[in-house]
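pasting for the record
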Amino acid sequence: MRGLIYTLEVRRGGVSGYALHCLEKLRPIFDHILVVCSDVPETDTLDILKTVSDDLLPMETAPNHHLEGYQKGLQHLGWDQVRKFDDLTLMDHDLVGPVFPVEDVYAHMEERGADLWSLGSRTDGKAVESDPDNLVSVYLCFGSRVLRSADFENFWSNECPKSDGSGVWQDYAFKLAPYFQSRGYTLDAFIRPENYETIYPLFLEMNETLQKGRSPFFLLHPFHSSPALLDEYQINLERVIPYLESVTDYPTRLLWDALLKTTSLRTLHTNLAYQFTFDSKAYNNTPQWDSSLRIAACAHIYYPEAFDEIYARVSNIPHDFDFYVTTASEENKAVLEGKCAEAGITADIRVVGENRGRDMSSLYIDLKDVVMDKNYDLICRLHSKKSPQVHPTTGKYFKNLIFDSVLANRAYTSHLLDFLVTHPHVGMAFAPMIHTGYRTMGHAWYDNRPVFSTILADLNCTVPEEPFSPLAAYGTVYWFRPDALRPMFDDQYQYCQYNKEPDHLDGGLAHGQERAMTYVAQSRGYMSATVWPDFVAAQSTTLMEYKMDSLYSNFPMSKVAPHSNLMAYVSGLVESKTESRRYRLRTPRPLRQFEEYCRPAVKMVGAALGIKHKKKKPRP
């Protein structure tokens, strides 16, 4: 008889679909499945779990570690029941799958004949063979020889941390394998480091363990790990999902749902390299859409003289579309209608109810019916953008960046449309963050975080917190799916909520909405992608390389992760002192031995911020 104890964390919104799918696929393989779920789920969630398990153990508080969940599950089963199993698998919800047959793994490991085996193992980098002291504890299989011994009950009853909270479960994860090995039991792993190039292939070589090792499961937590960590070890997660979609029948929509609920949007965007460069020269002659695709182009044209430029852009859509225009006055409307008549253009031209909120209020109030009721698949949003507050060439560059990224030309847009049609989980697509001429990068919140938080709270949108700059459609020119932003149209926005002209300033509703849209889409289960044409990418990336080279030349180390930590440390030294944003740099106290190495970088950052570094007094 084969048993399974599955530890599951019930997150907001109920049980993740990937976990239910996993249990459903494992149901025919195991004779008895016990699900240990953290937090007492709702009744309907319990009913769903009962369909994919034989027994449930809801816990009022989440276990400190999945080993504690295993322990509670074993105690719930009882040792007499445990001894009846021919093998017992302990599995945590951090594993996603199965993407390949699990039966093949058990057949392979039965041939190897180990008493205890894991899905994978880690080494200290010194041993030639896999170090059994480091079996990965998220998937453990105990054979009958171990289960029917006093050693097994003793480990879980006496060697593990007590229920009073004493002891650290993570430490016991590394003690489990040595405990059983020292008592004469044989240990093994399905994914062994000696067959790969790193000491921890399940984490560091996810693509290889899937493609080469045909591992039926892969870890979830690398996807929401720090991008600095992935950069440090060159972990290429962006290849995982395309591989699953091309080789396996695993429903990757379940993975997207889990990632969007647990990972900050910018982290996910970075870890999956969700920035796409499309060809602007060769037209896509094999489009993945047909005549049923419904597209709208919605433009807010405050300046009538910008009509020709706007229409030239939307004409790059290589498919039939409906054209909607909002403007500020009846006079403007008359001018725009004349231009449409001259060019033979059919357009629905509307005068906004009040000239407050610009392209935001005109979308969420005046074009609400278009988005909510017209059943469009995709909508392109753009507006007559002028930036009189900056240098003319700076404003022109920004406008070209955001316009080119959504409607560069017909060739480019044909590829972009193909991407949107074949990636239904993408709710918004827009230009990458500008870093030329503007100080957006690293400071993109400006004064807008409070209003951003208020918007999400009002819409009951709960998403992981964004520690750095938000991933957003800066400049508010973008493609979107109406369903992705539906909550923002359900809300009854009023003109009076927007700043009066000309005070279209940071901290107001419009700038908060600019940053909130992608996170509303995230709460709806949609990813956001940054897109641009090849010629824009070439210019932007070369300039970014120059900037980063200049920056890193001031650091003594060669890797990114220490620099990220240092920059976070320096950021902690810079604090607001007055309303006018004058800052001071405090004398460093941590990193005492490392201080002399840090000093050039600290001075450089301080100089960039216009702050004089306080000289440190000599220590007595």
